[in-house]
Design a protein that fits this description.
With 201 residues, this protein is of the alpha+beta class. The protein has 2 domains: 5-75, Double Stranded RNA Binding Domain, CATH 3.30.160; 103-185, DNA polymerase, domain 1 (Orthogonal Bundle). 43% of the residues lie in helices and 13% in strands. The chain has a 4-stranded antiparallel beta sheet with strand order 1-2-3-4, with helices on both faces. Strand 2 (27-34) and strand 3 form a beta hairpin. Helix 3 runs antiparallel to helix 4 (122-139) and helix 4 (122-139) crosses helix 6.
């Protein structure tokens, strides 16, 4: 079986999302691979997450499938996946999530609620949006119940490859806000006991 460009040029980590590269060894924006399946990172309204491109068997096929998916989003025919632990009520309102909901689901709901409340200025929303993308890219499929000190440490090691301590501290603070929101909304019974973080100097 012929290896893909991603497998040739990077060491793929099983059960984690890995970047996909083109023939010139350049990262393809919004395209990921995990356990042999390609995923497109997309945004549809307030929903943001990865969508499996199940029929794509190569990088070119995945790129084409991602473009088709984006066209469906622009046309308004794409329906975002229903969050785990949440159901749609008859009046269209979404019921609360649960500890089994993913970080992506929680971040998306938090951001939607923040926009609805209009309590934060555009600059803050922009910074939070960037932090949200960093978390969904790194551990978007992680359950809320699985947030622990190791996740924070692994995230820190990952981000420190490209940014300074201030950005890492801001990213972690954003996740703290999301989890606080989850407690208030009943997605979590209490703030994670396994949380352990001290701002980097």
């Amino acid at each position: 079986m012929r290896r893909t460009d991603t497998q040739r040029r990077t060491k793929s980590v099983r059960n984690q999302f890995n970047r996909v590269f083109d023939g010139a060894n350049r990262k393809i924006r919004g395209l990921w691979q995990r356990n042999g399946v390609y995923y497109a990172q997309v945004r549809a309204g307030v929903w943001r997450g990865r969508v499996a491109l199940e029929h794509a068997q190569s990088v070119p096929e995945a790129t084409t499938a991602a473009q088709v998916l984006k066209s469906e989003i622009q046309a308004g025919t794409f329906k975002p996946p229903q969050p785990k632990g949440a159901q749609t009520a008859e009046n269209g309102a979404q019921k609360k999530g649960s500890p089994d909901s993913t970080l992506t689901e929680a971040i998306t709901a938090y951001e939607a609620d923040t926009l609805a409340l209009k309590t934060k200025d555009p600059k803050t929303l922009k910074h939070e949006g960037c932090a949200g993308r960093r978390w969904t890219e790194f551990a978007g499929d992680r359950k809320l119940s699985e947030v622990d000190a190791k996740l924070l440490k692994d995230f820190t090691k990952h981000r420190r490859k490209t940014v300074g301590t201030r950005s890492v501290n801001t990213n972690v603070l954003f996740l703290h806000h999301v989890l606080d929101w989850c407690v208030v909304e009943g997605w979590l019974p209490r703030f994670p006991d396994a949380w352990a973080w001290k701002d980097l100097p």
